[in-house]
Amino acid sequence: MHIGIDVGGTNTDAVLMDGDVLVDKIKNPTTPDVTSGIISCINTLISSRPDVGQINAVMLGTTHFVNALLQRRELAPSAALRLCLPATTMLPPLVDWPDDLKNSIGGHTYMARGGHEYDGREISSIDEKELRKIAKQMTDEGVRSVSICGVFSPVDGSHEKIAAEIIKSETPDVNITLSSEIGRVGLLERENAAMLNACLVEVASKTVAAIRTAMLSAGLNVPLFFSQNDGTLMQSEFASHYPVFTIASGPTNSMRGAAFLSGVLDAVIVDIGGTSTDGGMLIRGFPREAAVSVNVAGVRTNFRMPDVFSTALGGGSLIKQNPLTIGPESVGFKLAREAMVFGGGQMTATDIAVANGMAEVGDRRLVSNIESSFAEDTIDEIQKRVEDVVDQVKISAQPVPVVLVGGGSILVRNSFDGASNVLRPSNAEVANAIGAAISQVGGQVEKVYSLTDMSRDEALDLAKDEATRKAVEAGGDPKSIEIVDIEEIPLTYLPSNALRVKVKAVGNLI
Length: 510
Fold this sequence. Notes:
Distance between the termini: 13 Å
Oligomer: single chain
Structural class: alpha/beta
Helix content: 25-40%
Number of strands: 23
CATH topology of the domain at 78-205: Rossmann fold
CATH class of the domain at 78-205: Alpha Beta
Strand order of the largest sheet: 3-2-1-4-9-10
Number of helices: 13
């Protein structure tokens, strides 16, 4: 059996799954410190089951790390080291970062000799003496985490590894992130992604350790996995080193859970929570990946992220009259205290759904003073916003199947423009937690290969072998590993007959 947990801005959902069978589910308000809410859900699920030995894994999707970025809190003093000189000096590291985020991590930046051209030739050689001097500066400035980004390191990452060894020898306690392990070709976006990861490593390590300790105290000495942005799982130790790969796990969990509950592998998934609505396209059971740069906390990045469109609409969204306004403010995890149907004084979207007869939540008598015409107008506006989300996600004008999940799905009607049919699967309110519980492990590779040294088939085989190896290292059963996506792009503008290959492999946990 597996426990699946998803932490949202409003609720923390948890399920106990026995294979493909849902055994139990729970939805609790998210706690300010996140961790205690997770542990509360685990304890509730296992309290009536004295034999916890049947539980063999816990899968978790959390917003804790992305919230740390958005709220500029718990971020480690970090430095960005670029291996580039004498090139790329016109746009230094962190050049496009918001000032408040840059200041919250110290804004330390360095440029040193190193890096490569697109074909693997060195821009310049590593200068060990220069790097040791920079390492001492970092120590003096109180830096605790470092991102190292070499120009074209996805083609040749050797300089990043050499620099990491030198920095580590001078400052053994510092955390180091290599950009070649985080992002794709594209210097600034990859450097940004690595730096976001670097400043999150400390809080990730503490969070993982706290959850592991609490699991042990509950008698659960089982593997802990975290959901990744691409819909697969990673081991907790990996998550503590690469927390940036978890920041979009909420929408991906919902999409994977929606596919499982509805049996539909190709559809638009709309997850309406307490604070926001996320829409994404499901292709062969996995979220469609964003093809362009993705903005995270005001920073452009290019690592693996789902192609998701979000809007500030949820069950906790505040409703105002004259003129009609829906959100963007939300009562969030305080919904059960502040919404009118629960005796509170704030009019929320949930109150409107109850007043309009679309939901049975709380005490309907407490919203009897809401005029039916106003409730209807509000539902019409909510409907338009959800239809807009579907329209933004679709890639053609043709109607497509739409699967509605999340506790806030009570806010919309059973049919709307742009949908060929609307599905509301059972247990949709915990689709995110189910998505975490049934997730597979995966491995992904994106590299540029020179076809002057090998054939196209040899390049594809190398990429597939590496993706498979990564999936096995992540805990996958070698017999279950399959290649689910291959993408190849000839780089015709390069003289070396280069080919960029992206391969994704997934498999079941052992």
